[in-house]
Design a protein that fits this description.
Bound molecules: NADP nicotinamide-adenine-dinucleotide phosphate
Radius of gyration: 19 Å
InterPro entries: Precorrin-6x_reduct
Number of domains: 2
CATH topology of the largest domain: Rossmann fold
Organism: Maritimibacter harenae
Pathway: Cofactor biosynthesis; adenosylcobalamin biosynthesis
Distance between the termini: 9 Å
Structural class: alpha/beta
Number of helices: 7
Strand order of the largest sheet: 3-2-1-4-5-12
Mean pLDDT: 96
CATH architecture of the largest domain: 3-Layer(aba) Sandwich
Low-confidence stretches: none
GO biological process, one term: cobalamin biosynthetic process
EC number: 1.3.1.106
CATH superfamily of the largest domain: NAD(P)-binding Rossmann-like Domain
Shape: elongated
């Protein structure tokens, strides 16, 4: 049986590793190529966009995939919506691996916004902001009306931070709570801006914000496509077993 695994997350790496041990399966993992040096993935890997909807549909058809596991990031809304539609049209079983979102605990000061557009309204001119949304969000938010922005990214940037009040910070997750506390302290951060990605790996920054009493601007997830969901790696493996 042939499986296409859309990757780009921790869950995708776990699924590739676990399915790779199953001699009944041929698994191809697909990466967008967003990170210059991605963490290793088990098995056959293709890298780069498909080149659009028609090309992706042809790729799935021509390779005779029997099922598609969409383990892309909860904020990778375009690829998920498109893949679900293609699979429905081709009658190829599709499952989206969608980890539960984060929720605030007692004492947390989270300011919820529905998209990046809502972020500037939650900030004040004297604030030093830690942007954990990734560099892709910077263009969507424009120049934040604050004293300073520190925006974390995985790869070294080819160009400086695009606004005069900010800078990049290079770092590859996961980070421990202690690392995050130290980073926020050293940079004199007043507020954390992040996306509701969910998952254990990224929660350390929220625990650090809690420990330091920092408010958090939390960007809500975009709408997800219809269709079958797996909240965990185990649930995705069960889906393959049922297939
Ligand atoms: N958005 C985030 O916050 C975030 C965070 C961590 C990791 N990621 C990962 O980074 C990748 C890109 O994220 P995004 O938000 O830019 O996605 P997106 O907006 O949904 O997709 C943009 C384009 O990237 C290509 N693409 C995305 N995922 C792909 C995959 N697994 N294999 C092949 N092509 C893929 C497609 O290009 P074509 O149109 O050319 O086919 C797609 O149209 C995703 O795979 C996602 O899992 C995203």
């Amino acid at each position: 049986m042939r499986i296409l695994l859309l990757a780009g997350t921790y869950e995708a790496r776990q699924i590739a590793q676990r399915l790779g041990r199953d001699g009944r399966l041929e698994v191809t993992a697909s990466l967008a190529g967003a990170t210059r040096v991605p963490l290793p993935l088990d098995g056959e890997v293709r890298v780069g966009g498909f080149g659009g909807q028609v090309e992706q549909q042809n790729y799935i058809m021509n390779n005779g995939f029997d099922g598609v596991i969409d383990a892309t990031h909860p904020f990778a809304a375009r690829i998920s919506a498109r893949t679900q539609m293609i699979c429905a049209a081709l009658n190829v079983p599709y499952v989206q691996v969608l980890r539960p979102g984060w929720a605030p605990g007692p004492g947390d000061d989270w300011r919820m916004v529905t998209s990046e557009a809502g972020v500037p309204g939650q900030l004040a001119a004297n604030m030093r902001v830690f942007l954990a949304t990734g560099p892709g969000s910077v263009a969507a938010m424009g120049r934040l009306p604050v004293a300073h922005v520190l925006c974390r990214r995985i790869d070294a940037a080819e160009t400086p931070y695009p606004h005069d009040n900010g800078e990049w910070l290079i770092g590859r997750p996961p980070f421990s709570v202690e690392d995050e506390v130290e980073t926020f302290r050293q940079a004199g951060v007043d507020i954390l801006v992040t996306k509701n990605a969910g998952g254990a790996g990224g929660f350390a920054k929220l625990e650090a914000a809690r420990a330091l009493g920092l408010p958090v601007v939390m960007i809500d997830r975009p709408p997800q496509p219809p269709g079958e969901k797996a909240e965990t790696v185990e649930a995705a493996l069960d889906w393959v077993e049922r297939l």
